[in-house]
Amino acid sequence: MCYGCGHCVAVCPTGSFKHRDMSPSQCITIVSNLLPSIDATNTLLKSRRSIRNFLDQPVPRDTLKEILETASYAPSGLNGQPVKWIVIDGRPEVKRFAKMTVDYLRYTITDDPAIAKRANSEVWVSNWDRGMDSITWGAPHMVIAYAEGSRWEEECKIALTFLDLAAYSHGLGACWAGLFNFAANAWAPMREALGVPAGHNAFGAMMLGYPKNTFQRIPVRLEPRVIWK
What we know:
Helix content: 40-55%
Number of helices: 9
CATH topology of the largest domain: NADH Oxidase
Structural class: alpha+beta
CATH superfamily of the largest domain: NADH Oxidase
Radius of gyration: 20 Å
Order of helices and strands: HHHEHHHEHEHHE
CATH class of the largest domain: Alpha Beta
Largest sheet: 4 strands, antiparallel
Strand content: 5-15%
Number of strands: 4
CATH architecture of the largest domain: 3-Layer(aba) Sandwich
């Protein structure tokens, strides 16, 4: 029942175990002093913010590639590694797809009132018509996680969470784009333009770019609500 996860190669203290898919020399050596302390990890996780105000500055392609590579290490069921990516690169393209999202929301107002009510379509369309992009918020990049079939939603969302934190460690800001992802699945013109293959689903979209603002404090959150057994 081997799923090719690499545990056997990773755990061997002498580097003598070779798997059919990988050898120790192909694997990244863990440098223990690069691991963050508890305080550093807590600060990273607690200080990460959803960014909706971006600089008009593109992120270098190499940085995007590094972030995506890190996100590819997110766990997946049976080591399926099902997550695939679409990167919309550059503000003009992101805005073009934001307009497609608005086109879909506009369609729901006239042709699918139940969806329009659930999505609050009139608000987002009104914002767009007034010159306010509350779909992608001026982001220079958009990243979509998709996979074949319907069983890999959790894996895509975990991978996007990895991407969110990896982006933050690079000084970038990110924000989940729910309406964008909604349209990416429901609006045929947008699916076609994105190039989502038949039989695949987009399970999450995330804005990405350099944030305009620097946050100084970690806001208060509710105490954990736990049932201890």
